[in-house]
Known about the structure:
Layout: E1 2-3, E2 9-10, E3 29-32, H1 42-47, E4 56-63, H2 64-69, H3 73-83, E5 88-90, E6 95-97, H4 102-105, H5 107-119, E7 127-132, H6 134-146, E8 152-157, H7 160-164, E9 171-176, E10 179-186, E11 191-195, H8 196-200, H9 204-221, H10 223-231, H11 233-237, H12 241-261, H13 278-287, H14 294-311, H15 319-330, H16 352-361, E12 367-372, E13 375-379, H17 384-399
Parallel strand pairs: 3-11, 4-5, 4-6, 4-7, 7-8, 8-11
Antiparallel strand pairs: 1-2, 9-10, 12-13
Helix pairs in contact: 5-6, 9-10, 9-12, 9-14, 13-14, 13-16, 14-15, 14-17
EC number: 4.2.3.4
Protein name: 3-dehydroquinate synthase
Cofactor: NAD(+)
Amino acid sequence: MGRDGSGLIVTPDTHTYEQNFSVTFRYPVVFTSGLFDPANPVLADTLSRQEPGKRHRCIVFLDDGLFAACPAISDDIVAYAAHHGDRIDLVAKPFPVPGGERIKVDLHFVEQIQQTLFDHHIDRHSYVLAIGGGAVLDAVGLVSTTTHRGVRHIRVPTTVLSQNDSGVGVKNGVNLNGVKNFVGTFAPPFAVLNDLDFVEGLPDREKIAGMAEAVKVALIRDGAFFEWLERHCDDLVVFERAAMSHMIRRCAELHMIQIAKGGDPFETGSARPLDFGHWAAHRLETMTRYHLRHGEAVAIGIALDTRYSVLAGMLTPGTEVRVACLLEQLGFRLWHPALDKRNAEDGHVVIDGLREFQEHLGGELTITLLEDVGVGVEVHEMDHALIAGAIDWLRDRAAG
């Protein structure tokens, strides 16, 4: 009996082997238009990228909100598959699924999607397409990554928020017991196919909501992009196509750079740098029962944390006004009465979001704040009194 190099007591019949290997993940993120136009080969080429010359089994889940707004889309997908029948074997007409947070708050929908894959004998060489907003991508992605330990999943984001942020990432998940994304996986998709035409058909409120993530990632990673957003604010407000296209693509690119080069794509540590403004946003979403869109809550969270950064002496005073002005000009309201809700100890209920944010990853509380426009910095504690001061500032600004 003796001690090994780590100080552990071992017996002669104890043997330790260290397994060590790495896996490279690659997936295309395509920006196009007319994705389901038979003349557009992007989808067919994507299905064939690993196994050319083969006919690929494919099943499609479609956001019911998109289906209601564009009832022809199901027939368009069927027609596209028929036109490319030498490469695509569509096993059934697209299946509508609930859009928005509805699909994430009830595990019944996850089970229903899983049953559909089982009934149609979807295997690991088949493809599961999710067409819709971020919530639909999250839920269908969760099912795809847990069926047969991973079926090839293709995301077709149809909202600004899902094209510029969640759609290009590696997360899948649904809510449980009121906790956002409590059940989920880290698994990259097989491909992400973005069609700007879907964005143009969105209600104005949905277009605006997705812009919050562009402001967020510009503030923490790219000051020049933030300045671009300021210069092109008037174009974005009227949803000018070229401006929207650039905004979505640059935002997606910055998210992809962080995921690929940030050193922790599967969030094994305590930091969540892409979640600037999100600790409060997630709490506000649940407090309002998702009447606040995710992007709307993120805009409030961004303004709150930017003002906090000033109050904490980290950020030059006046920067919070600059950030708030851009968000307001884009169409966001930076106040919601939920911010004033108090608990039994007369504390702000929204501050519970800090605890929930920490619990999601575990480890040390790690919050991204601002040191400058384009420069995020991580802190491990937040002063509740300063948070209250930031809330007061938002209330006074709204009262105007």
